[in-house]
Amino acid sequence: MIEERRDTGKQAAGPQGRVASDAWSPASPADPEQRPRRPIGSFTRYEDAERAVDRLSDLGFPVDRVAIIGQDLQTVEQVTGKMDYPRAAWRGALSGAVPGALIGWLFGIFSWVNPLIAGLLLAVYGLIIGAVIGAIVGIIIYALQGGRRDFASVVMMRPQRFEVVVDDDVADEAVRLLATGV
Q1: Residue 122: what pLDDT?
Q2: Which of 88, 153, 161, 170 is 20 to 30 Å from the Cα of 128, by its Cα?
């Protein structure tokens, strides 16, 4: 049955009219051939999917033929606080300080006369200049937003479930190993 679906190349319509195809995932770097894969388990927590793969590994299964795929991604924006001019300046200063220090250090490290002192001194100068420029840019960007976004936040992607998929030709063995433990 699976062979027929793979040979015909038919795809089933999924939720909201999207087209769902056979399960796949990136192959091992040592094996560039992309093989069809079959899900053998679905978990709501990553730790549970990881535990299933670890169990397969403990039982001698070739885990280079297994992948954990995060499904149904959800964007979560966590608000971290109110944004105002001092906070915009502070965040901009932090954003500018690190690249400024790195650029200053790189310029100083290529100095032929006493490179250690020159590198450290230019790194400090770069940190200060980068922080000042970053603070100015942060304030300008906040002012240009015109009060439309008066809060700071962090955005993250979170899958709703994790599927463990295995190469189709060894999937039955993986299911048997997970079910019996032998």
Answers
A1: 86
A2: 153
